[in-house]
């Protein structure tokens, strides 16, 4: 059998998302099917027809109170000065709440308004009005009444109405079957062996669960390799069996991105490329009357594309509107640039600081699933806007409940592992309280406090003049504000060395003399300041250090470099050395402290935070990492807004 070869498709369209959606909706002609389901298991299903009550509720006149049923007309003359006596079974019967009130009785008197004379005789001093304390037939539901219109999503309370009216089965839309085909030679199932170049297939399960959540019936196939024949086969089978087909990855311009050609060959392609970032390489087409949607491989692009195109089709199938997320006005904590001509979808962290919702962008990389996991909101920047300024007030779609966002502690500054532990401990004490952190570096953290965009900043800024950490910087940059510098951690800084320290490195002189390959940090990093200070103190010139000009941007990347070179040395914190299984020779303790406004420090949230920091369980968590110590009951440094007298 001859193999089909396909040319690379290089140019993708930039079709506006709404236009692509409207177009695909016009091509969507679903064959809707109705199924009858038991009312007890109809939760979340959508009624396909109006639902009418089978019987009334109540279906008899029912007493609404414990007491006696009477004939109202025979009580009309009752008065304090004219008590009326009633005889059992003659002109009253005893009834309890819910009992039937048989004719000719037509009113109920509560037991507390009755005087018992003897077993069969009662006395009343007030008349009863007709139908008082009686739930007449159909008070709640009248037989043949419409319970719900078509297109109604069944909720728990609706199941109550169905059962109460003896409506035991309901006609609902059959869920549209959405077949999901993950493709890629590099993919393995999560339980399979991993190797370099092998990626775990997880998009498929994410899609399946979204489809389920949105009211569809997911059908996740196995992984299909990047071979035209296999893809063709999978698509043909899927289009026969499903209402909608989603094929993942292979949507772009790679040498093995066959999907678009195969859809074109088997049916029609309406769109290849939408004007969005991320999510651009979407394919919208149709094979044998079934809509086929090719979504990009990168997880974030993939989930967004699914929401833009698959969700509306599922809703269209059941004639329901596409739900919208609630929105919130937020102030931007940072400037955001955006692509002209394309909609930008930016995952945001949101915090409530000093009475304002402040939002900061998370990473924009389309391969970072955690950006969606961590997102509090989604900022959509329209195509005609090239960027937004820090401080602009914009609308974001909420991806988390507002209560949760409002109670979070906004943490900015230099990242440290212990901040996650702190967040876990806070969460354990209070369901909602957590920390949302932006890792922007110590200086940017200070600036966030200055501008009221964060509650707490984590900083480790060494003053090379004084050898002191943080104090100088806080005094200089936050002058004029009421600020608290809270001594938080002592972190061990030390040499990162190959296992066993083969070159026996202990000092800056050793590094220079033995011509080690030094792995440096970027200018401004606390570790870089420390290294430069060590050089000065030891009278070693930067030119004597091999590799001084090579800068890495994190402790972990320094450790990774050292791991790959037996002649290398780096400087950094212990956990990074431990993660890469390196030798670690401690040389200094670094102060990693917390900066916050005095108002926050004194607030309930602030007190909570300090309490957790000083708790035995948090300290135990921190000790487990190694190379760390929480400063025991420190004296916070309070800096007041009153300018210092020089
Ligand atoms: N020259 C160009 N290259 C690329 C373009 C472009 O316009 N020109 N677009 C880029 C964009 S934007 C995206 S998005 C990706 C889309 O690529 P594909 O849809 O062809 O997907 P793959 O390359 O096969 O996979 C990309 C990436 O996605 C992850 N992936 C894929 N499938 C799964 C799965 N089932 N589970 C989890 N993760 C999955 C994986 O990390 C892949 O490496 O193309 C750019 N390139
Ligand atoms: O569309 Mo890609 O999704 O920008 O990363």
TrEMBL record:
MoaB/Mog domain location:
179-316
Can you supply one Gene Ontology CC term for this chain's record? Answer: cytosol
Please name the SMART domains in this protein's record: MoCF_biosynth
**Metabolic or biological pathway:** Cofactor biosynthesis; molybdopterin biosynthesis
User: What InterPro entries is this protein classified in?
Assistant: MoaB/Mog-like_dom_sf, MoaB/Mog_dom, MoCF_biosynth_CS, MoeA-like, MoeA_C_domain_IV, MoeA_C_domain_IV_sf, MoeA_linker/N, MoeA_linker/N_sf
Pfam families referenced in this protein's UniProt entry, alphabetically: MoCF_biosynth, MoeA_C, MoeA_N, PBP_like
Instruction: Look at the named UniProt entry and state the broad enzyme category this protein falls under.
Output: transferase
Cofactors that this protein relies on: Mg(2+)
Q: Which CDD domains match?
A: MoeA (cd00887)
Q: Which NCBIfam families match?
A: molyb_syn (TIGR00177), PRK14498.1 (NF011068)
| Family label | Belongs to the MoeA family.
- Know the name of this protein? Molybdopterin molybdenumtransferase
């Amino acid at each position: 059998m001859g193999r089909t070869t396909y040319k690379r498709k290089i140019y993708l369209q930039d079709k506006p998302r709404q236009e692509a959606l409207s177009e695909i909706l016009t091509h969507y002609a679903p064959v809707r099917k109705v199924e009858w389901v038991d009312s007890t298991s109809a939760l979340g299903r959508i009624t396909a027809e109006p639902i009418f009550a089978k019987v009334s509720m109540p279906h008899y006149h029912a007493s609404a109170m414990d007491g006696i049923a009477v004939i109202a007309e025979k009580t009309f003359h009752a008065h304090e000065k004219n008590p009326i006596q009633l005889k059992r079974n003659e002109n009253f019967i005893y009834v309890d709440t819910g009992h039937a009130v048989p004719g000719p009785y037509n009113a109920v008197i509560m037991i507390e308004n009755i005087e018992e004379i003897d077993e069969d005789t009662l006395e009343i001093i007030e008349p009863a009005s007709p139908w008082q304390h009686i739930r007449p037939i159909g008070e709640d539901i009248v037989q043949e009444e419409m319970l719900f219109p078509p297109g109604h999503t069944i909720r728990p309370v609706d199941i109550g109405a169905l059962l109460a009216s003896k409506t035991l089965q309901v006609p609902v839309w059959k869920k549209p079957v959405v077949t999901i085909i993950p493709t890629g030679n590099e993919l393995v199932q999560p339980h399979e062996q991993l190797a370099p170049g092998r990626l775990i297939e997880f998009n498929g399960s994410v899609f399946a669960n979204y489809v389920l959540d949105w009211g569809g019936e997911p059908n996740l196939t196995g992984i299909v390799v990047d071979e035209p024949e296999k893809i063709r086969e999978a698509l043909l089978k899927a289009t026969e069996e499903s209402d909608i087909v989603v094929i993942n990855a292979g949507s772009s311009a790679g040498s093995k991105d066959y999907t678009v050609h195969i859809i074109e060959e088997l049916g029609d392609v309406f769109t290849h490329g939408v004007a969005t970032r991320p999510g651009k390489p979407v394919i919208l087409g149709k094979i044998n009357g079934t809509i086929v949607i090719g979504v990009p491989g990168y997880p974030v692009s993939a989930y967004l594309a699914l929401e833009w195109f698959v969700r509306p089709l599922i809703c269209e199938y059941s004639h329901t509107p596409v739900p919208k997320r609630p929105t919130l006005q937020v102030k931007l904590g940072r400037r955001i640039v955006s692509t002209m001509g394309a909609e930008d979808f930016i995952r945001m962290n949101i915090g409530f600081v000093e009475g304002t919702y402040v939002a900061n962008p998370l990473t924009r990389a389309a391969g970072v699933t955690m950006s969606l996991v961590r997102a509090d909101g989604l900022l959509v920047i329209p195509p005609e806007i090239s960027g937004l300024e820090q401080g602009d007030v914009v609308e974001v779609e909420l991806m988390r409940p507002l209560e949760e966002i409002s109670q979070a502690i906004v943490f900015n500054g230099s990242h440290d592992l212990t901040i996650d532990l702190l967040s876990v401990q806070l969460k354990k004490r209070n369901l909602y309280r957590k920390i949302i952190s932006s890792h922007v570096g110590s200086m940017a953290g200070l600036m966030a406090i200055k501008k009221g965009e964060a509650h707490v900043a984590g900083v480790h800024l060494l003053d090379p003049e004084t050898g002191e950490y943080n104090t100088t910087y806080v005094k200089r940059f936050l002058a004029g504000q009421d600020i608290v510098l809270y001594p938080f951690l002592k972190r061990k800084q030390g040499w990162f060395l190959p296992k066993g320290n083969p070159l026996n490195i202990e000092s800056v002189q050793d590094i220079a003399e033995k011509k080690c390959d030094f792995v440096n940090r970027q200018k401004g990093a606390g570790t870089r300041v420390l290294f430069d200070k060590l050089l000065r103190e030891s009278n070693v010139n930067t030119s004597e250090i091999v590799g001084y000009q090579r800068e890495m941007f994190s402790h972990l990347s320094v450790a990774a470099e050292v791991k790959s070179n037996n002649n290398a040395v780096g400087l950094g914190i212990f956990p990074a050395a431990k993660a890469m299984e390196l030798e670690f020779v401690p040389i200094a303790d670094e102060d990693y402290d917390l900066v916050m406004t005095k108002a926050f420090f004194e607030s309930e949230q602030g007190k909570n935070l300090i309490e957790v920091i000083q708790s035995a369980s948090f300290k135990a968590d921190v000790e487990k990492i190694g190379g760390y110590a929480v400063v025991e009951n420190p004296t916070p440094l309070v800096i007041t807004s009153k300018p210092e007298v020089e």
